[in-house]
Amino acid sequence: MPDTIRISGSFAHPLQSGLLAIVGAVSPTAAGAEVQPALALHQLVVSAHRSIDRHEIAFFVLVLGLIFFAVVTAIMLVRTRTRTARFEAWSGDQIAGLRNALDRANALLLSEPQIMVDWLAASDEPIIDGDPALVGVSAPYRVLAFGSWLEPAGARAMEQAVEALRTRGIAFSTTLKTLSDRPIEAQGRAIGGRAVLRLKDASGVKRVLADLASRHEALLTEIASLRTLIETLPSPASTARA
Fold it and tell me: In CA terms, which of 11, 51, 203, 210 is 20 to 30 Å from 227?
């Protein structure tokens, strides 16, 4: 019996050793098979964590960029509104000053009867302001028809003066008498690329000077007529010879 047991024990030992060897050979493969899925899962978790961190960082940076852009835009908007308000206030002051200057100019121009004729540069259409009754016409456009309210000589002189003013910018100043014997002071100036003709009533001292000038011209005309008459008369010497 003991022998049998010993034989059985000696037989069992090699069998156990073989089984252990097989188990040992199979065990690393099973262990490796269990380790590889765990390692892959760990790597997946790490990579997912890293990817989540990157997305969060990118989103955070994007949010910061939007906030910075909004703040800068708001600051620029406030500054622009401030500058616009200052410019509007300055513009309002300038407009008010120009309106006051225009009102003063109109008051000065309308303080006495006169007519203003204005030609823009390279334009044949005049702008006529004032009372045309000053020169004895009913319509403003007839103011430039000098022959309708001036004698032929005065009308020709005014046409030549206005033509020289518009083409060459030559200023002039003269005193005329209308057909109703009313003295008119005519002035022509080139101002800011415009040709301006001003007709106004010659009153007071100017009226006296206009009357004197008219009398002087009449005397000159009479003298010229007498001189012509004298030159046409036969001389005493020629009469004596005859």
Answer: 210
